[in-house]
């Protein structure tokens, strides 16, 4: 009888543990997180057309008991994101799209509780981004990927440099209206591997804007801007650069001195829809080793080319 009773107790204990793990994993009860929903296959919380900051806080309060790893906010209208809305959760990815958010936080820092978990922050097609205080992100010690795209970000201010202590490996600022970059815009982001600045209004780039040396930088995207010329030292001390995108810029000359520092390592160079003059100044290209390289461009002059 004792053996039977002991066995029964063990089984009850295991069942209790299993039941608790089931309750605390995956998605919350859908009725308790309305108007949000949860994608069970990925444990991602989705909120759409929310206009009250307290609604987000209430939904996240329920979600604290579950293993939700991502949050997607679409078409929300907030004055700010409550600084403690995510406190007690383990959110690793936060995506905000098609939204109007005046400020990232109601205090001087954002996303309390995500300091050690948030790795990906994506902002797409959002309003008021140009007035956000970048220093509010300073406590996100694990942030690796930051995307601000299609959001009318006109410039990167000096405040942006204050988040360079984060272990950011990817910065994506495509499809904004960035016209100007500080001389040292990305210089302090030493771990940067991918920098995407395509489809902006940038006309000037300088070597001082990037880490030196840029030991980890593998991808540099500058397509669809207004860059007319590249400084002679622009690619110096970039030993890992392999993918370079320069299409749709009014660049007319490919100077050997500019590309020589990276030519042996480059894997892909895209220069479609440029204003390249294909004359004797491009003779150096015919003498270079093109093995294992994907190079595409087009000539605007002379006409026969």
UniProtKB/TrEMBL annotation:
Origin superkingdom: Eukaryota
Keywords, sorted A to Z: Leucine-rich repeat, Repeat, Signal
Signal peptide segment: 1-25
Pfam families in the record: LRR_5, LRR_8
Keyword Cell inner membrane among UniProt keywords: no
PANTHER family reported for this sequence: CONNECTIN-LIKE PROTEIN, IG(IMMUNOGLOBULIN) AND LRR(LEUCINE RICH REPEAT) DOMAINS
Protein name in UniProt: Slit-like protein
């Amino acid at each position: 009888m004792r053996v039977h009773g002991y066995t029964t107790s063990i089984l009850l204990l295991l069942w209790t543990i299993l039941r608790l793990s089931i309750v605390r994993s995956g998605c919350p009860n859908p009725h308790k997180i309305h108007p949000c929903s949860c994608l069970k296959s990925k444990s991602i919380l989705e909120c759409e057309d929310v206009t009250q900051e307290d609604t987000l806080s209430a939904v996240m309060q329920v979600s604290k008991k579950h293993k939700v790893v991502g949050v997607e906010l679409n078409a929300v209208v907030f004055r700010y994101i409550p600084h403690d809305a995510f406190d007690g959760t383990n959110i690793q990815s936060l995506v905000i799209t098609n939204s109007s958010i005046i400020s990232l936080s109601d205090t001087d820092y954002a996303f309390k509780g995500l300091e050690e978990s948030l790795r990906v922050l994506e902002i797409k097609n959002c309003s008021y981004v140009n007035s956000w205080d970048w220093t509010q992100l300073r406590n996100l010690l694990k942030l690796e990927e930051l995307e601000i795209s299609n959001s009318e970000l006109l410039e990167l201010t000096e405040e942006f440099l204050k988040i360079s202590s984060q272990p950011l490996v990817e910065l994506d600022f495509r499809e904004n209206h960035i016209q100007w970059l500080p001389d040292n815009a990305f210089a302090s982001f030493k771990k940067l591997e991918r920098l995407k600045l395509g489809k902006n209004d940038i006309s000037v780039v300088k070597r001082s804007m990037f880490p030196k040396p840029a030991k980890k930088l593998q991808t540099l995207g500058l397509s669809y801007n207004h860059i007319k010329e590249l400084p002679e030292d622009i690619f110096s001390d970039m030993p890992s650069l392999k993918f370079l995108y320069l299409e749709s810029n009014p660049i007319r000359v490919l100077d050997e001195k500019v590309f020589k520092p990276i030519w042996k390592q480059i894997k892909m160079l895209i220069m479609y829809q440029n204003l390249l003059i294909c004359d004797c100044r491009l003779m150096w290209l015919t003498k270079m080793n093109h093995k294992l390289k994907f190079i595409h461009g087009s000539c605007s002059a002379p006409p026969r080319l």
